Amino acid sequence: MAEVHHFTYGVFNPIAAFLLAFLGSFFGLLSTARARDARTRGRRNRWLLIGAFAIGGGAIWLMHFAAMLGFEVPASPVRFDVPMTVASLAFAVFAVGAGLLMVGHGRRSLPRVVTAGVLTGGGVLAMHYTGMLGMHVSGEMRYDLTLVAASAIIAVVASTVALWFTVSVRGWLPISGAAVIMAIAVCGMHYTGMAAMSVHLDPGAPTGVTGLRPLTMIVPITLITAASIVGVALSALQAMTEEEFTDGAGTPRRGVHAETSGVSWSLKQATAAQTAVRRPSPRPVPMRTPTNG
Question: Residue 288 falls within a domain, yes or no?
C-alpha cells in the first residue's frame, strides 16, 4: 500500500474547502429563502435552481476539488480525467436540484424532507466517488467498506438537515449558522470518504498517467467559482428586480415608472388628464324671466 498525503499544503486546503462550502451553502440558503416568498411557481423554481447551483456546484463540488488539491501520492503522479470531473459536477447540481424541487413545493413535512434527503445524499455520494473515479494514479484505488458506509450515512444525514434548513431558516444570523453546519457536514463527508481510500501501486503499470495535473485544476476552480458567484448574483438581482416591480403574478404594480410598468403616456394625454382633474365643473346659469312693461 502506497503512502498517501491529504494535506500537502498544510491547512490551506481544508480552510479553502470549508470557505467554499460555507459560501455555497450561504448563497443557496438565501436563494431558497427567497423561493419561499415567491408568489408564482415559475419564480419559485428559478430561485430553487439558483440554490441548486450554489449548493451543488459551490458548497459540494468546488469544496471537493479544492480539498483534492492537497491530495498526493509521493510514489505516483496524480492526474484528473476531465469528462469524469464534469460528470461529478452534473451529479451534484442535479441531485441538489431534485431535492430542492421536492421540498420547495407543497406543504412541509418530515417524510418529504427525509425522502428528498436520501435522494440528494445519493447524488452527493455519486459526485464524490465519480470524482474519485476520475482521479488516475499508477496503480489501483481500493476502499474500506466500513468508512464508505460511514460517508454514505453522513451524506444522507447532512443532505436531510440541509434540506430542512432550506425550508425553515430565515434571517441573516440563522442562515449563517445553518451554512456553518452544512459546511462542516460536507467537509466531514469528504474527508471520511477520502479516509476510506487506499492506493496500491502496480510495479508493471506505465509511469505516465494521463489527465490534468492537480495544480492545473486551480484555473477551472477559480473560473467556475467566479462564474458561479457572478451568475448567482446577477440571477438573484434580476429576480428581485422583477419581483419589486410586479405584484407577484406577472402584472405590473400600480405607481411604478411608466417604462417599468409597460404603460406609455404621451405628454398630451398627461396634460389632458391633469386639466380634467383640476378644471372646475361649470355652474348652471339661472334663466331670467322677461318682465312686461
Answer: no
